Every structure is written in C-alpha cells, then in structure tokens.
Amino acid sequence: MPGAERVRFPEERSVLTYTKTPDSNVAEIVVDGKISDEEMNTAMNAMKADLDKGGKLKLLEDIRAFEGMEPAAFFKDPRFGISMMKSVSHVALVTDAPWLKALAETFNFVSPTQIKVFERARLAEARTWLASAA
After folding, report:
1. Taking the mean position of all CA atoms in its chain, how far away is CA 98?
2. I need a surface site. Which of 25, 40, 71, 133 has the fewest CB within 10 A?
3. pTM for the whole thing?
4. What is the pLDDT of residues 34-80, one digit of tens each?
C-alpha cells in the first residue's frame, strides 16, 4: 500500500503486520508464520488506535502461512475480534487454507461484518472489492 504506515516488529522477519494508509478506511493485516504475543499486542494497539478515530474500517487479511500463535496471543485474539467487529464493515480474507475458508464462511452467517474469501492468487481482486464496497 503506497504511502501506508506500517507497524513493524523488532524481529528481522515480521510474522504479523498491520498497515493502514492515512486518509483511507482500508487496513491490511498480513500473517506469515507463528504469531507471538508481542506481535499480537502491537497489531491490536495499532488497529484499536485506528478504530478509535471513528468510522468503519474495511480490512484485508492476507494469510500467507498460519503456523499458530503463542497461547497468550491466542486468548487475546477472540476477545479483540469480537469487540472490533462492530467497527469493521467488510473483511476480505485472502488465503489458500481450506480450514480458514470454511471458518470464515461459517462466521459470515453470524457476523455483522460482510466477509468474502479470496484465494491468494486473487489478492488484487480482494483489494478492488474492498475499495468499491459500500
């Protein structure tokens, strides 16, 4: 995302990144490996700061590889996810993992957020869908 503010983590290779372009309501989360508690805290704080500014966010979740998360991060994620869903209007989940696709499609039935799943090869299409979503 050109001109985006990226939250980086101290490790050489970030497993979890959160990016949001200023003056945009679209944010991106990239997961590529096992998520640490520290990474989860940093991403959650950055996203919470954006949500606290008001308005609805549209979120692209690019799951390149998910190898789990530290226990402390795991227990934070559901609580944060549920509380933030009222402030997120659309989620584009980009993944090739069948179990994540099934989970997202099931959650879409009970969530106030519109969720659409895209294969990794359709990342550009996911971004276009979010940009045009009302």
Report:
1. 18
2. 71
3. 0.81
4. 988 888 889 888 988 998 888 889 999 999 998 888 877 766 656 66
